[in-house]
Design brief:
With 447 residues, the protein is of the alpha+beta class. It has a single domain, classed as Amidase signature (AS) domain (Amidase signature (AS) enzymes, Alpha-Beta Complex). Helix content is 32%, strand content 14%. It contains 13 helices and 14 strands. The strands form 4 sheets. An 8-stranded mixed β-sheet has the order 5-7-6-13-14-12-8-9, sandwiched between helices. β3 and β4 form a beta hairpin. α2 packs parallel to α3 and α7 crosses α11. The mean pLDDT is 94. This is Amidase domain-containing protein. Pfam families: Amidase (PF01425).
Length: 447
């Protein structure tokens, strides 16, 4: 009740669980999740999320939705749970469920996982199907997993990875033929000889919380002691063009038409239209319909700025998207080419191929970054994978996490080294439920 992390429960959950128990008792075990419905798992319900994947309002409360209310952080209920997949991460943290799923366009799996002290895995766009998922950007949306242990998170990911004819992006995926991703897990011994790069100026300098930085640098020292090589200064060559020095941002770019904001505004207009066209129980068919609905029911939906504390800016995000009319013109395709280039071959891929002062090229296994600030921006723009592991908590009892970033389809590498780091650090702590009585909206994102 206090966390508001679950939006609705599956009324058939107990019946499904009884059937699963009966199957197991009869000797039929579908897999490690027997206990995605087809894998034998029991679907408990749906989590409370940032409304419309944080798309509707530029100034909002993290984890807030008009229907579900304010999702809260199990470690300190007055602070932000992270978004947009707030409830699924917090439900895992509070031991309400073993695993959960969330979607990420930019930071919506990594951020909540970090603030819930759980493992969060955001896969390459196309590894998991987005069919039936409320969309934001076809170029960046991906479904990821949460687990209290690394293995739980990977079992959950493994269950939903694969080709789906309803999502064309899954047709080009690369991965193990048998779909077994758990096989890549390793213990801390795998860190000996590993090479990790620190994009210091690109990412680390954005981590303003000094308390977090102390813990994160302690992790770096432990990795060195475990035999890993740490190379500082593995930067994204053109990061200043799209990454804000003040942290997470979609509005940074050479011009308004060369920003992530522009890409997502156009994508959302078209993607939400296609999504709504598949629904049979509503007359809402477009972003314009949604905007009109929020104005008509302003007292409960907060379409007008200042009506609801959770949506301070109303629905300015929707209005920005509607203004584009979804026009996929030459400016849109120029934006697409620019963002792909600057985030991929002249971004993450360049950082993973480091050239030393003597001209030697060093292959980096993965980039090591804080799970905060603008760390999620570049892999989100590129559609590349990222994983976060808990490493402790700060002075406000808010969890701290560290992440690995890789190139496209590098899930096996991130699983190998992510699980090894998790085994070394063992940084997860159980929730403390500090300020369990908190009812503040908006929640505090500064801690």
């Amino acid at each position: 009740m206090f966390l508001s992390s679950v939006l609705e429960f599956n009324p058939d959950a107990l019946l499904i669980a009884d059937r699963a128990d009966a199957e197991r008792a009869a000797g039929t075990i579908r897999g490690p999740l027997h206990a995605s419905a087809r894998k034998g798992a029991v679907l408990i319900g749906k989590g409370t999320l940032d409304e419309w994947a944080s798309m509707r309002s530029s100034s909002k409360s993290s984890g807030y939705a008009a229907r579900g209310g304010q999702s809260r952080n199990a470690y300190n209920l007055s602070t932000a749970p992270g978004g947009s997949s707030s409830g699924p991460a917090q439900a895992v943290a509070a031991n309400m469920v073993a695993i959960s799923y969330g979607t990420e366009t930019d930071g919506s799996v990594i951020g909540p996982a970090r603030r819930a002290s759980v493992v969060g895995f955001k896969p390459t766009v196309g590894l998991t199907s987005r069919a039936g998922v409320l969309p934001e950007s076809v170029h960046q949306d991906t479904v990821g997993s949460f687990g209290r242990t690394f293995k739980d998170a990977i079992y959950a990911l493994e269950a939903i990875a694969g080709i789906d004819p309803r999502d064309n992006y899954t047709m080009i995926q690369e991965g193990p033929q048998d779909g077994n991703y758990v096989q890549y897990m390793a213990d801390k011994g795998a860190l000996k000889g590993a090479v990790f790069g620190l994009p210091w100026n690109s990412v680390w300098n954005q981590t303003a919380n000094i308390g977090d930085m102390v813990q994160l640098l302690a992790v770096v020292d432990k990795l060195k002691a475990a035999g890993a090589t740490i190379i500082n200064g593995t930067e994204f060559p053109r990061y200043k063009e799209v990454l804000s020095p003040s942290g997470w941002s979609w509005s940074t770019g050479p011009s308004p038409l060369l920003t992530v904001d522009y890409r997502v505004d156009v994508d959302f207009y078209n993607n939400i239209r296609d999504y709504l066209a598949e629904l049979e129980n509503t007359n809402i068919r477009s972003i314009e319909d949604i905007i009109a609905y929020n104005y008509e029911y302003n007292s409960i939906e907060g379409g007008i700025p200042g009506t609801l504390a959770g949506f301070k800016s109303g629905q300015d995000g929707f209005l920005s998207s509607a203004a584009t009319k979804g026009e996929m013109n030459s400016s849109y395709w120029e934006n697409e080419a620019y963002l792909n280039t600057i985030s991929r071959e002249e971004g993450i891929d360049a950082a993973l191929s480091y050239t030393s002062d003597n001209g030697t090229t060093i292959k980096i296994d993965a980039l090591l970054v804080p799970s905060a600030g603008g760390a999620t921006n570049m892999p989100a723009i590129a559609g590349y994978p990222m994983v976060t592991m808990p490493v402790g908590h700060n002075a406000h009892s808010v969890p701290v996490g560290i992440s690995l970033i890789g190139t496209a389809w590098s899930e096996p590498t991130l699983i190998k080294y992510g699980s090894a780091i998790d085994d070394l650090i063992r940084g997860r702590e159980t929730p403390r439920f500090i300020e369990w009585w908190a009812r503040n909206i908006p929640v505090d994102y500064s801690k």
